[in-house]
Amino acid sequence: MIHFFNDIARTRLTRWVFGWLFLVLLYQWSANLMISQLESPVLLRVDLDLTYWLVHLTGIGEFFRSSYFAAFSFDFFLTVLCLVAVLFPKRTIVPILTGLFFLIYCVLLNSYQCWHYHNLITLILLIVPFCFRSLKTFSILFAGLRYAVAYIYASAAIWKLVRGSVFNEGQMKWLIQHNYVDRLAVEGYELNFLENMMFQLSNYSTLSSIALIIGVAMEASFLIAFFTRKFDRHLIIIGVVFHLITAVLVDVSFLQLWILFLVFLPPDRITSSPTTWFQRQKA
Amino acid sequence: MNFFLRDVWKQSKIVFAFFVAFILGTIWCTFSKIEITPFFLWAHYSDKQTPTGKFERIYIKVNGEILDLPKFSRATREMIQLPTEYFVQLERTDYNTNTRQLIQKKFASMMSQKSLQKMEGHLCNSKEDKNAYLYWMAKYIERVTGKRVLTLEVGTCELLFKPDGTVARENFIFVAKFSRA
């Protein structure tokens, strides 16, 4: 059954999503990863992704490389647009423009980084429902997004099962070594307690294989979302714990995507106030 | 899922068509193993790997010293490391990427030579970009470290796990060098 949101819920969701996006962009600024901060990169990697082709064929990338002012204006407007969406959540044009700017930003950044990362560009899927004025369309698209997020995790598990890496002996040892080798190659670098504990796991093949199987099982648990909403809250916890573990083991947290777990929040929790949640919890 | 789509069909035929198109696009990309945004493949870390205790890595020497990449945040580090890995790959393959191959294969017969070159110029790098890349890398490293880069050397090496758990850098292979004269 599709839950239809009211204006209050939509306004709240808009503020949460675009507020998060604003914070993500602030982090990108701090990490010198906005287009104007990239010092006009030379190499670009588009592979066979036709969306990347389309963006680069417009010449927008070259324009930003040739004009610092244009690149800075683009970065500035993208950041401000997120803030405008938070302040004026009922203006549909703002999410549309933010989505368009954000897509161009992610495509350019991934091209110049020479690797098509998913940690930012996937947020495009989350922006789509907010581009429609009708509450009905918004609600249906937001409900569909729940399945898309479940698919992301479930398909990650399926890929590992199909390719056989999950039961491959030594797979986890390789993953841990692959993650830690650069740090250990630095003269004088000492692993902290947590890092050392995780690195030691690679010396115990059975234990590390079990850790990998548990990780894949956590991803596979998202399949349940296709059949029932009953375990949605548990999926949020599983997702966060999964990412915390992968952050330590393989240095991948996908923190920017955690906002996607919003789709597993019971719709009535979005509409009601935190005071109501507390009272309900007490009762 | 099938019940969800049935509900969507009842509520809006247009949104239903949108979902079906998205599902079909995802299925096609999955089976073709091609990623076309927004049809993403979530196959990270799914390739089978065998631990050999040896990893090939790029190295960057700034003013004669190896750049300590792990000291940067992951995001900043990757803006240095990944383009350099790609640069090494381009040097090894003589700048003949799968993008260039696809352009030649699919568009050579339907476009003029001039248009084809323009398209390649928008989407691919060439040997002429080598020095420009090294100069850019020097500028970006200056930005994130705040230090003047006088010389820059790029190459590959092997990181080997020793029996005592330490890691050694060996088998350095030089790829390119930049110097501010």
Sequence stretches where pLDDT stays below 50 over 5 or more residues of chain A: none
Q: Hey, roughly how much beta strand do the residues of chain A contain?
A: under 5%
Fraction of residues in helix of chain B: 40-55%
Structural class of chain B: alpha+beta
DSSP strand count of chain A: 0
- Total number of distinct structural domains of chain A: 2
> What is the gyration radius of chain B calculated from CA atoms?
23 Å
- Mean pLDDT of chain B, as a whole number? 92
Cα end-to-end separation of chain B: 64 Å
* Multimerization status: heterodimer
Q: Tell me the number of helical segments of chain A per DSSP (H or I, 4 or more residues long).
A: 13
Give keywords.
heterodimer; A: 283 residues; mainly alpha; 2 domains; 13 helices; 0% strand; globular; B: 181 residues; four-stranded antiparallel β-sheet
Task: Kindly describe this structure.
- The complex is a heterodimer of chains A (283) and B (181).
- With 283 residues, chain A is mostly helical.
- Chain A folds into 2 domains: 133 residues, no CATH class; 132 residues, no CATH class.
- In chain A, 66% of the residues lie in helices and 0% in strands.
- Chain A is globular and about 55 Å long.
- The model of chain A has no long low-confidence stretch (mean pLDDT 92).
- Chain B has 181 residues and is of the alpha+beta class.
- Chain B folds into 2 domains: 49 residues, no CATH class; 95 residues, no CATH class.
- The interface between A and B is large, with 78 and 72 residues.
